[in-house]
């Protein structure tokens, strides 16, 4: 049961951010979210494991870049800024979160409260350029453009032209030395299952786009950013988990693989 009474949030309609929170073991969700999560997990039993790894990868990224001296983080498609999000992994940094969904933003702002180091804005990822150039962002960052961008678990909900525009807009705005963290979700595009098709339809019913590309295509869409020395890494390796942590069953007969990538602007 949710621990928050959030005015303006509809508890009867599943919400992707609250569903994600439930699968991470959180409490900021409602029965409709839990029911939707149960249905999706019945279709793809490995989904909660992959989602936990996605969140762990975001934490790893935030810790790593904080240790490199980054003090400004701008995260897109943030969902709910719970205790395991960027601001908790990079204490002392200033963090801008954003999401397009009004319910998510209302809930998120309650969670953020009056923390002066965290700002939560409503913005579609397709409007990233407008967000970055807004007066509120300029004030919050003090005009600093050497930042760490995050877009975790987001590309699967974007079309090809949206990914290209997003990456180009961030690159053009950012100062040299900035970095961008992306995750890519891939599968063997020649394979499908009835369960997978129902899984996709579940997101579509919530008004979410859902499309996977090959790793090579994702990397091409992310230009002109430059890969860091590590290149694209399966989440298992990025997190330092033991070989075999991801089993063949976790790939759901589809060749599922998730990658973490850190880019830089030189």
Protein model, in words:
By secondary structure, this protein is an alpha/beta fold. It has one domain: 3-Layer(aba) Sandwich (Rossmann fold). It is built from 11 helices and 8 strands. Strands 1, 2, 3, 4, 5, 6, 7 and 8 form an 8-stranded mixed β-sheet that branches. α1 packs across α2. The longest helix is centred in the N-terminal third of the chain and has 21 residues. The termini are far apart.
Topology:
Layout: H1 16-23, H2 31-43, H3 47-67, E1 72-75, H4 86-89, E2 94-99, H5 102-112, E3 118-122, H6 128-133, H7 135-141, E4 148-151, H8 160-173, E5 179-186, H9 194-205, H10 215-221, E6 226-227, E7 233-234, H11 235-238, E8 257-264
Parallel strand pairs: 1-2, 1-4, 2-3, 4-5
Antiparallel strand pairs: 5-8, 6-8, 7-8
Helix pairs in contact: 1-2
Protein name: Methyltransferase
InterPro entries: SAM-dependent_MTases_sf, SAM_dep_MeTrfase_SAV2177_type
Keywords:
266 residues; alpha/beta; Rossmann fold; eight-stranded mixed sheet; 11 helices; 8 strands; 40% helix; globular; Methyltransferase; SAM-dependent_MTases_sf; SAM_dep_MeTrfase_SAV2177_type
Task: Explain briefly what this protein structure is.
By secondary structure, this protein is α/β, with parallel strands linked by helices. The chain has helices spanning 16-23, 31-43, 47-67, 86-89, 102-112, 128-133, 135-141, 160-173, 194-205, 215-221, 235-238, and strands at residues 72-75, 94-99, 118-122, 148-151, 179-186, 226-227, 233-234, 257-264.
